[in-house]
């Protein structure tokens, strides 16, 4: 089978390379003679980068890129609206990626200087592509990868209806020394709260940033800004009230290499193919640039479609499955881009909580699982409750084995309002708490360091409790990760989790927006925490942890304190007789991929092995470089070692 690809940009090159690696006969046809300069640089998500990374061993030149691990959105006055950790995002120049992809091609695959004209059709199928220079390329399958203004798309479908150009964008690359700057891995964006105007910049190397200025198209007032001087003057005029960083970037920019991008999109197509001709990348779908999705989606298209060539013999099945696989997510990206445009053009009508993260992959990962779970469980806990730390292995085993049935709601119990007048039996002051934690550690065999209460005692558990409620406002699953993280910080690392800088670090490590978290901690989260305290009082909760198993609104069973796992199973099977345990794969590496870190006791408990056996397994994983470990005086926590 011979595959003819029309368009030698990122989508077409990636498609050709992946098919050539599967031993297909491929010809890529590109209109440009050299490497086109437009595009400058872009962001790519972990999904797209992983596909490129698989090609690293075969490339003749390295892919030069820079990891971007934070996103920060600020007002013009520098007040932070969003601050969130990014996972697996990279910034790279378009020329670097194209050069990398070229190095993966042999001399006969890419043919340049070919501008597509039309197809030769026989029996309703294309048999050849004809180019304006008179050259003809025969083939069995044809793939249009010729961008948003695709001639291939126009030749097989009626012309698409593009959206209005409501937002324009100026793009450039400026020199800026970031080597000693703590912001050297941050995607920064400054946005007006009064009108549709924003400036963003992303490090592409230690000396350069790619920048963009987005603005309401009406602001140009008929000016075409066609010369470098006009464009420079326009950008500086628009940015005159923005911070000095912005003006410095503009000053160091070469406007002869910058351009105005008229942003637009079109509705998702009802199909991406006709007979033996298919579309990929911007030729098939186009989202507004607010999503940072274009390049990643081009690579994901190529990967999805090339893999289907091995699964099906006929092109109709290949192309139908390609559309069914890709179109739902692509349609959501189009809608997300439109929502972001609406927020951008009307900033006065939206609060800080109305802002959306302008990165599709992280947005996709921020969704909740809406699956119905028949048994509601109210779990009352506290960030500094030592027995709640002891119960962690049971919570994780319930997650592994009965997650399909249990809807566990986390509620804060308010264990330590302050030390003034505090009297909880044997604990009346921080020294008592230190002694108690050491006793709990010895009794239950869990790592727990009571020295925090001597070295830097917490005055109250209320601030981290309120922070957890703020995290729940963003994403419940990430809030649970956040609660686990702050527990690790206080129980193992002896860190005072009432301090904002530690709360922020924990929030960012769990993918939460720390700027919004801080705002919510001063408002709505306090109200939610008070609701938790009232609920605790209503149910006469005096012991942590406490689990209330509900049937409708009525409490059927209560478990409090340290209980064996069998007791939880007994309650579950009493209330749901048909409940079946999920005996999933307990492979050690998969457990670390799911939970990221575990104490020795957790690992042994989840694997149903002895502590001695569990420790031997963990040491072997550590020696093989799969996991890392953090030791305190009472034990070890083992952490999944993530790739750089």
Notes on the structure:
The chain is an alpha+beta fold. It folds into 3 domains: 2-64 and 94-162 and 267-345, FAD/NAD(P)-binding domain; 375-575, Glutaredoxin, CATH 3.40.30; 588-640, Arc Repressor Mutant, subunit A (Orthogonal Bundle), CATH 1.10.10. The protein contains 22 helices and 24 strands. The chain has an 8-stranded mixed sheet. It has a 6-stranded mixed sheet with strand order 6-2-1-10-17-16. Helix 1 links the parallel strand 1 (2-6) and strand 2 (25-30). Helix 7 (294-311) runs antiparallel to helix 8 (315-345), helix 14 (462-474) packs across helix 18 (524-538) and helix 21 packs across helix 22 (611-623). It is globular and about 90 Å long. The chain starts with a strand and ends with a strand. Mean pLDDT is 90; it is low at 363-369.
Give me the secondary-structure category: alpha+beta
Total strand segments: 24
Looking at this structure, what is the CATH superfamily of the largest domain? FAD/NAD(P)-binding domain
Q: What's the architecture of the largest domain, going by CATH? A: 3-Layer(bba) Sandwich
Shape: globular
Low-confidence stretches: 363-369
The oligomeric status of these chains comes to: single chain
């Amino acid at each position: 089978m011979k595959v003819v690809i029309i368009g030698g940009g990122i989508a077409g090159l990636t498609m050709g390379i992946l098919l050539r690696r599967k031993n297909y006969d491929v010809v890529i046809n590109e209109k440009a003679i050299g490497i086109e300069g437009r595009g400058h640089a872009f962001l790519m998500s972990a999904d797209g980068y992983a596909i490129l990374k698989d090609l690293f061993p075969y490339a003749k030149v390295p892919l030069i890129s820079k990891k971007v691990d934070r996103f920060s959105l600020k007002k013009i006055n520098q007040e932070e609206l969003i601050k969130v950790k990014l996972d697996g995002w990279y910034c790279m120049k378009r020329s670097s990626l194209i050069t990398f992809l070229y190095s993966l091609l042999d001399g006969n695959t890419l043919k340049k200087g070919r501008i597509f004209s039309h197809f030769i059709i026989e029996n309703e199928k294309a048999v050849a592509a004809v180019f304006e220079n008179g050259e003809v390329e025969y083939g069995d399958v044809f793939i249009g990868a010729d961008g948003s203004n695709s001639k291939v798309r126009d030749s097989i479908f009626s012309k698409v209806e593009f959206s209005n150009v409501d937002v324009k964008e100026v793009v450039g690359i400026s020199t800026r020394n970031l080597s000693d700057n703590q912001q050297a891995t941050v995607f920064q964006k400054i946005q007006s709260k009064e009108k549709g105007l924003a400036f963003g910049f992303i490090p592409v190397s230690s000396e350069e940033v790619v920048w963009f200025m987005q603005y309401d198209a009406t602001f140009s007032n008929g000016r075409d800004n066609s010369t470098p001087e006009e464009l420079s003057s326009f950008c500086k005029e628009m940015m005159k009230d923005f911070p000095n960083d912005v003006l410095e970037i503009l000053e160091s920019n070469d406007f002869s290499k910058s351009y105005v991008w008229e942003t637009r999109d079109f509705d998702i197509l009802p199909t991406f193919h006709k007979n033996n001709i298919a579309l990929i990348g911007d030729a098939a779908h186009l989202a507004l640039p607010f999503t940072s999705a274009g390049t990643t989606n081009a690579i994901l298209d190529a990967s999805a479609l090339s893999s289907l060539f091995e699964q099906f013999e006929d092109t109709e099945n290949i192309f139908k499955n390609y559309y069914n696989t890709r179109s739902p997510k692509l349609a959501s990206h189009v809608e997300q881009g439109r929502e972001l445009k609406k927020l951008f053009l009307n900033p006065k009508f939206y609060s800080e909580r109305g802002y959306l993260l302008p990165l599709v992959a992280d947005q996709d990962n921020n969704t909740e699982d809406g699956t119905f779970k028949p048994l509601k469980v109210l779990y009352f806990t506290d960030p500094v409750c030592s027995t709640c730390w002891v119960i962690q292995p049971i919570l994780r085993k319930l997650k592994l084995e009965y997650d399909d049935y249990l809807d566990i709601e986390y509620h804060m119990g308010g264990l330590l309002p302050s030390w003034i007048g505090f009297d909880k039996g044997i604990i009346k002051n921080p020294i008592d708490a230190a002694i108690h934690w050491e006793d709990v550690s010895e009794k239950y065999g869990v790592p727990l360091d009571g020295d925090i209460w001597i070295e830097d005692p917490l005055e109250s558990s209320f601030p981290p409790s309120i922070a957890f409620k703020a995290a729940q406002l963003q994403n419940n699953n990430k809030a649970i990760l956040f609660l686990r993280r702050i527990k690790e910080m206080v129980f193992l690392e002896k860190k005072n989790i009432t301090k904002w800088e530690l709360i922020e670090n924990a929030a960012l490590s769990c993918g939460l927006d720390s700027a919004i978290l801080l705002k919510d901690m001063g408002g709505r989260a306090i109200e939610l925490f008070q609701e938790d305290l009232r609920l605790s009082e209503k149910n006469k909760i005096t012991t942590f942890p406490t689990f209330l198993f509900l049937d409708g609104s009525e409490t059927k069973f209560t478990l409090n304190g340290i209980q064996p796992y069998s007791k939880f199973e007994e309650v579950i099977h009493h209330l749901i007789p048909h409940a079946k345990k999920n005996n999933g794969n307990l492979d050690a590496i998969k457990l670390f991929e799911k939970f990221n870190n575990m104490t020795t006791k957790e690992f042994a408990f989840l694997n149903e092995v002895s502590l001695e056996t569990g420790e031997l397994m963990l040491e072997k994983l550590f020696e093989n470089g799969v996991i890392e470990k953090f030791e305190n005086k009472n034990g070890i926590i083992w952490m999944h070692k993530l790739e750089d």
